[in-house]
Amino acid sequence: xxxxxLLGAAEIRALATSLNATPTxxxxxxxxxxxxxxxxIVHQAHLSSxxxxxxxxPGLGSLTLALLPEVAHVVAVEIDPVLANQxxxxxxxxxxxxxxxxxxxxxxxxxxxxxxxxxxHLVANLPYNVSVPVVLHFLESFPSIKEFLVMVQAEVxxxxxxxxxxxxxxxxxxxxxxxxxxxxxxxxxxxVFWPAPNVDSGLVRMVRHESTYDPKIxxxxxSIVDAAFGQRRKTLRTALGSILGAPPEIEAILxxxxxxxxxxxxxxxxxxFVAIAQAAKKVM
Length: 284
Hints:
The radius of gyration is 21 Å and the shape is elongated.
């Protein structure tokens, strides 16, 4: 089977013009116009011929065309109805033999609760404005996803992969760690997109691990994480008041968890946040 023809800058712009599809900031649309970039993403995504990939925000199909020859199936979730309707047409034109291996769902990714098949990988050029919530939603909703490789704003990539003690460590860092090990997988320049964004991008990989934590404690743990970083400069005894009650109760919970009440959220790893949630659950 011959490799599909990937889309370059001229093809992307011509296709967008024919659809009267102008990239919008509201949907965070920046289309990839560089074939080498999509080849790089696919190469780094650790895919096999038996994998099922969910792609969020496929846009005009640049990455989709590169994914299809490498996997068993691609499920593309696209919120824009014009682009969702066009994607199968584009795939049929450039890779007709692979068109049967594509399923397109026209929906808001944050509202997706089920898919026609269980995805093993998430691979996407994610809209900057929803990248973290979308990834967390899919990791929680689809335990079959064993790995993701996504392209996001460079600052977001840094935050996803950050460890305790750094200034960029925060809510995304802790919540991602619940599901697996996150690493940065390389930088991406601005000129591979149309329109070119005013920020740099980066690739992030996560490999899911078998969690040793009780899944029933996740929601409380995440609420504690949100509270701790919602008032980042405050100590835990102050920041966690909205979740754990009055200062004496907070102090008791934190000490039972082996955590210094005078510490700040940025000093704690996932294990400490889980310990706080476990201690709190015993008295709530």
